[in-house]
Each structure stands twice: as C-alpha cells, then as structure tokens.
Backbone:
C-alpha cells in the first residue's frame, strides 16, 4: 500500500508540473512535450492498474496552474446523533459533502451538499478542520485533495435520499454503520463526537 501511495504521489507531481507547463509555456514544441508527459503518466497509471475514474475529467481536462482540489464536508448533530448519508457509489456511509462548487464559498458548498444529499437545511457556523487527504488513512487516490469539515446547525428540511445517496439517518457513537473511509475516517467521526461537548477555538489543520 505504501509503495502504491508513493507511486501515485510521484505521478501526481509529474502531472501537476506538466499541467502548469502546458498553461504557461508559449513554445508549441514545449507544449507538445508536456502533453506527451501527461500521456505517459496515464499509461503508467493503467499499467499499475490504478483507478483512473477521475483522471480524465478532473486532471487531463483541468487548465491553469495545478492546485489541490477541495472537498467540503458537513458535521451535523441532532439529539447527540450525527447525520450520515449512504453513498450510492460504494454503499457505505459518510458525513454529507463533495467537491466545492465554483460560485459558492466553501461554507455555502457544504450547506448546498447537505441539502442536495439529505434534504435537510443547515447553516455552517465553524470550520472545524482543513486536512490534507494524504496525511490521513483514506484509501489512496490520484488526486491531491484538501478536505474542509464544517460544523453545521440543523435549521429545517425533511430527511430524504437523493441521486447520490440511498439512505439518510442520524447515528449515535455506538451505532455507526460501515463508514466510507474514502470520504471520512472513523477516527474523524469519533473526534466529531468529542467536539460535541465543546467546540474548539482553533481550527485543526493538516
């Protein structure tokens, strides 16, 4: 697993350099070389049998200076139970969230994700954590991702599933369903329950 993660991280760095080179270079021959680099990276990924689901839409079609992508997540409690949604993609459960949308602030994106995935209306009140996905025990992924976790207050709506989610519910600490660690780790969820007692003054990072 460690070797695979290092392999993916190295290829990701090469990809980012090639992306930035394509954007800033004015020389057509250099642009061709950078494009060839991206093609070679894609070949190496396929040879290693790494999941390339997000490679074309999120990497090859990206333009400009290469930067990490932002995943926003909402932490919502009701009667000491945490809001979780069952993802249709892997059948596992996660705090609501997804990629941040252009035209929305990070907090607005988190609120929007909750409404779309669960039917519930929330208000983001505090940024709990801004983490680097690589520094936590999530499954290896080609993209370099920052994850923003917002503490949100429940203000309305009615719980219901969506295109992205098959079930929605509130769960106590001792009754958690199987967790989608690609989105949130069990350690992070248990930390959220600890924070329920008193929100921290400072935001956790890294």
Residues:
């Amino acid at each position: 697993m460690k070797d695979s993660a290092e392999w993916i991280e190295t290829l990701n760095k090469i990809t980012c350099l090639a992306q930035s080179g394509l954007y800033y270079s004015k020389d057509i021959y250099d642009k061709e070389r950078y494009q060839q680099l991206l093609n070679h990276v894609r070949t190496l990924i396929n040879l290693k049998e790494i999941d390339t689901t997000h490679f074309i839409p999120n990497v090859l079609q990206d333009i400009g200076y290469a930067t990490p992508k932002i995943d926003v997540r909402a932490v919502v409690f009701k009667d000491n139970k945490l809001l979780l949604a069952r993802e249709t993609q892997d059948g596992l459960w996660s705090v609501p969230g997804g990629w941040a949308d252009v035209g929305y602030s990070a907090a607005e994106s988190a609120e929007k994700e909750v409404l779309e995935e669960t039917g519930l209306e929330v208000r983001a009140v505090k940024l709990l954590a801004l983490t680097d996905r690589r520094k936590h025990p999530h499954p290896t992924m080609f993209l370099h991702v920052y994850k923003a976790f917002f503490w949100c207050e429940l203000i309305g709506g009615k719980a219901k599933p969506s295109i992205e989610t098959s079930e929605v519910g509130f769960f106590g600490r001792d009754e958690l369903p199987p967790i989608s660690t690609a989105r949130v780790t069990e350690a992070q969820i248990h930390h959220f329950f600890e924070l329920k007692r008193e929100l921290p003054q400072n935001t956790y990072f890294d």
